[in-house]
Amino acid sequence: MKTITQSINETAEVLSEDDFEWLIPQLMDFYKDKINQLAYKSYSSTLNEAGTGTKVARDAFSEIAKDEITKALNTFLFKSQLWKSKRDINTYLIHSLNNLSTRVQKDVEGNKIYLAPVCPHCKETGKREYLVSDGKLLVCQECTRMAKETSQRVYLVFSKHSKRGYKCPDCEKFIPESANTEKGISCPYDNCSFFGNISNMVKMSHPVGMSNRIMYSINQKFSYSEQTLEDKINDNNNINPDSQLEIHETFNNNYNLLKSIMSEQLNKAKLNNNITNIIQKTLMYEAYLSILEKYPHDMVGYLIHKRSRTDFPLQSKIFQEYVRIVQDSLPYTMKRGGKEINITSLLDPKLSLFDGISKYEAIVRADGSIGNQTKERYIGSYIGKDYGCYFIGYILDIIDKTTNKSIKNKINSYSFCEIKMNDVKEGLPVEVTHYRLYPHYEIGSMVWLQKIRKKIISRITAKNKNK
Length: 467
Hints:
The chain is an alpha+beta fold.
């Protein structure tokens, strides 16, 4: 059986960005063990001996690995077209993941515990006040505050002082070199009266304390304000009314443009009685319109701005809506070759929707999802290419193997290659039964899914040029 990377190597020439919807989940599943291994390596310095935090590390790395695989695949297939020089996608993606791990590891280790200078006076009073650099001097915020409230010399000395210093011969405490004057240096501490010349004193290292690298929290208050960073971000999001109005107007114009184009093309399809499979075509347009109503912002981004989200597969949602509309329309009559054909089932070969029923066993993953483990594979009849396992087309049932009971009601959503579940434990063995779908956008109903999308985008481009 060919792996997903072997399939990509063989079919790179015909793949498009639309295929990312099923390619990315399959690649994530293919590299699951590799990603888990790199997650532990990347965040090992943050884990204790018991391994606490391993799941968090794994989930964190998995998210950025998904983005890295998406970018690398885009480079391999389209940006640099590395497949033309016979580069192997598996080697390329492993190299990309290893580089990602190295970058993450450096970032994490850059935030390790280190020795930071602390205020010598505050340390003597039982406080630990970390110092801020100001050029060659160190600033103690606590001593700076106290220097404004009292005339005690010790606060003035340590409010801003040098890192270099000397050991007081009497009290053996740190005296900063910045406290030195033309006449000599005096110990600033309250319980010491030493006065002398630095030429006769022993140099002393500045006191330090264990600290983490400074990491700013979104909920941390600024020293000069009661506001947090989150407050400031929210303030910046308070767009002025004119800009807000313009944004809403632009979106509404795009939404109305999409709706009018879809409706116009749907009406034209209904009027053209000579087209074979006219019912399938009109029902697919209805599916597009329905998803536009349900997810307007995503559809505007997908069809007008040509942005797609791998975590929100619109292609699958449009196809599932199409299946629902077809199912609700059954039985219906369609024309083919001048003859009327009665369609009574989703599995009717004349409908060209699904290729049959598939069953497979799988294990629920850590994120509560079930991968596509369909055993049947589609081999192109023309050139004999292996396009990989069939897509998940329509889920009939999901059985919990430990109880032999259905958990179909716990489905959150599903795409061509992945099922997301609610309240299902990791490691649960399940059996998935579904109508299998051709993993190719030029076969069956998938043809209408793609043709209509391209027709809508083409019409949008034409209208924008005529503005």
